[in-house]
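Re-run with default settings, no changes from the original entry. Doing this only to confirm the output is reproducible before filing.
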Amino acid sequence: MTKKVFVFFPDGVGLRNFAFTDFKITGEQMGFDITYWNNTIFSLKDNLGFKEVKIEDHTAHKLLPIYSRARKRAELNISRDRFNDAVYSTYKFPFRYNSLKNTFKTLYTKCLIGLYSSEDGIVKLRNKINALERSTSKYKYCKAQLEKHTPDLIFCTTQRATQSISALLASKDLGIPTVAFVYSWDNVPKAMQVVDTDYYFVWSDLMKAEMLKYYPFVKENQVIVTGTPQFEPHFNDNLKQSRSVFFKEYNLDENKTYICYSGDDQTTSPLDQYYLADLANAVRSLNTKGDNLGVIYRKCPVDFTKRYDAVLEANKDIIAVIDPIWKPVGDQWNQVLPAKEDFKLLYNICEHSEFVTNVCSSTIFDFVAHNKPCIYYNYEQPQLKKGIRDIGQNYNYVHFRSMPSKEAAVFCTDKNQLETIIKNILDGKTSNVSEGLRWFEIVAGKEPMKASKRIWEAIDDLLNNKF
């Protein structure tokens, strides 16, 4: 009997993993009837020819943002106190008092945090959020869709979207099993689990241990290690272009050796443009000493600021701009969606660059999958002043504690050392690839190329009551 699965997109962040990889093909080859339950403005039917059920009612309870923020802060407070670790406070975004409305929201949120910052309080707060979302028209709308289409299981592609709460509650209330995929390697310690589902799929044993550590109400058998489809394309040699073809397509100089600079979002690295300038200066200096180097700049897909423009203009003889193939389909950050072609582009940037440099990005794993090193910048810029976030705090985050050693990345802690580090990598004297691959395995599991298959196998086991 064919098993009918709804793959649920509450927002666009899951498209890259679950629409543009071989995830759907793998599931169909295993006999699943797959329908995309689509809460985004991106039409999977029109753009990809996928079977979809569109969610047209996007109503959320007006108090949901306040209660969700209170839940996150309360959970972070509990982690801070339970583990005696100040890092959890750094995950909090500042409150806003810049208008009467925002001041009221802040005071209301603080009141909730005071009431619910305990283990029992978190459960009550989550139950309150669920009660609010069950009262919405979207809950009734989604429940009617499910009663009409009768899927056997709902697979939610991210655990962190508040837009998914009412839909998943409708699923659970109808007795339909629900699964949430934990979207990113840093999400669990940051209190970004907004949904309560029957099961959770995670990347690795590390993430499973984190789920059980931070959420005592989640049982061991509810957390299943599957891997993530995010890295599967790096193991698909059909995506590889020859150096000459790739260089010709993107107007690169075949006589040059290229280094990739992977840009960060403004929140993570507000002075990111100055690290790009430092790289350009180091490359320019090395070129005067006999090297012939260039830089490929790949921006963060959701960064539309002009902050890099002056650096790019001043170094256009050195820096080649190759934008990721992502397309805005709305005015929110999570409505900037990837095109399938970007997998091929990223594969070949990794393949044809000598190494990557960035501020604490997970692109380190994309590059070590191609046996290429990574430099992490970890020094302050002179432009740093009060009110600007220091990038150094990023490396104190919990997910960086998963590094097997400090050699898992090449850290540049002094701008004056950058040129020497670059030269040593190019000459084969410095590399993080061996330790970086160990870190990759810790974070993403032992066989990242088989994640889609393992997700479908886990779904099959759930439907056959093997868990």
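The chain is about 40% helix and 15% strand. The longest helix spans residues 64-83.
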